[in-house]
Design a protein that fits this description.
This protein is about 25% helix and about 30% strand. It has two helices and six strands; from the N terminus they run H-E-H-E-E-E-E-E. The chain starts with a helix and ends in a 7-residue tail after the last strand. The protein is an alpha+beta fold.
Length: about 120
Amino acid sequence: MHELSMARDILEIIRGHVPPGSAVESVRVQVGELAGILPENLHFCFTSLVADTPFKGVRLEITPVPVRGCCNRCGETSTMSVTEIICPSCKSPDVAVVGGRELQVSEIVLEHVKGIP
């Protein structure tokens, strides 16, 4: 399961960026439509991995990233369908994919501690 290794990577990123003793509320991840990741599987794997760790209860918030392509014929950059990567302006199939393959941790949100601004 590809999502399991991605969930492990996300957990390692959290461990590497959060000071010891800090409470993590959520981690926000951007997942491109062409990344080959099923968001529901990623969520399940992440929740299972953190169950017996200090990060139990951390919410994984997944933001889908649409496919974006730049047309080599007319130069237009547009959002495109996963099933039909063609330029919506000139209908050319000569398109370079420039977005939608991402899998990126965009934010780690720490819990607010009372008395600390």
